Amino acid sequence: MNRQFLWKSCLIIATGLVVFFYVLSVLTLKTEEGMSFIAESDRQQLKSWAKTAEELYLSGDKIALNQWLTELKQKENVRVSVVSFTIENIAGEEINVDAEEAYHFGRSVDWKIHLYFEHNPIMELPFSQAKGSFLIKLPERMRPGTYWLTTRILLQIIFPLVLLVLLATWIYRHIITPLQQLEQATTAFSQGNFDVRVRASLGNRNDELSHLASTFDQMAARIGELIAKQRQLISDLSHELRTPLTRLDIAVNNFEIEKSHQHLERISRESTYIRKLVEDTLTLAWLDNEKPIIQQEKVDLVDLLDVVIDDAKFEFSDRELILETPNHAVISNSSHQALCPALENIIRNALRYTPIGKKVTVTLSQQVGSYCIEVIDQGPGIAPEYLEKIFLPFFRVNNTNEDGSDSFGLGLALAKRLLNSVRADVKALNNDNGGLKVVIMIPIT
User: Fold this and answer.
1) Which Gene3D superfamilies match (predicted)?
2) SS3 421
3) What is the largest distance, in Å, between two alpha-carbon atoms of the chain?
4) Which of 363, 359, 366 is nearest to 331 (CA)?
């Protein structure tokens, strides 16, 4: 697992927080700077006072100027004054006019006012037509940053808190939503809805949670398939058992001493049939459930086919059985226990449906990376729509075989699953010259 959710979360959270706090810092500084200037209306008021003071100063009426300054002081409760200045050169170079005009007693109304100063600064408004300035301690009502503390709390506490809560909520929903869907799917699955799936509802997500959803879907599909197969198998087995059990009951109920040998023979045959049916069904269920891969030993397919063919010739002596093989065909990581019954069932099935006097041909050839075994009979063949179904449990094209032998439709199903257990595959085709061709592909290694 490449931990995409971890890296995605780190990228979003770490990068997002760094960018957020950088933006927050810049925004705080900009806000503080913007709130550090005197309001435009207050600037105009200060300039208006300075103009009045200059007019009174230029008029030469100091009494009127002092009276006006006293009234302004009482009204605004601040210190006010008008000062003039001359600069006397004591030593060195003569000071120039620009330096003289740049001499200040206080702060300009256009300068920033530090929001953290305890006392209000002295504001200086130079006269335009005289060498003097109007000085006034900035009135409290004009001091900028009245709401700076509130703004600072909003910017540095409330806003980050709200944003982090939103981020935590998004992360929670990003994680909990698929988990809730998994919970709902698990509940539905436990209630018998084996078709429930989760991965499609997660969209384009590609992280640990989507992988978990995919794993759940695979598990649900696998368990649903197994349960469906088990139900079908039990249903088919119960159906198949009814007939031999009925015959067995009849034989037992009608048992007569005079015909004891005949009845015992019938009872023995039916019990053997039932035992074989149950054993094959249990084997098939195990192969379906476990899907084992049996890779234990080397197998020479030529020797194995010789043994199977000899047994088949003895059982079906009235059919011709032809075997075409190379001298040796050794495969690795396989199993006699799986291959022998599989080949035996397929060859026996071909012989069973081949009329007396006809032949069955078994050929073994080597292909790229595998050996190919073809079993060709001269039977009636199978309708195309049944070619895949013949490998299903309890499937029979006809209810009775041409030779009248008993069969409960498990031979080819078992053969396919046994071959799958050694990574081999099998398929059925209708032969061009009539009859059925079964093709088995067995990997060499």
Assistant:
1) 1.10.287.130, 6.10.340.10, Histidine kinase-like ATPase, C-terminal domain, Two-component histidine kinase, sensor domain
2) helix
3) 160
4) 366
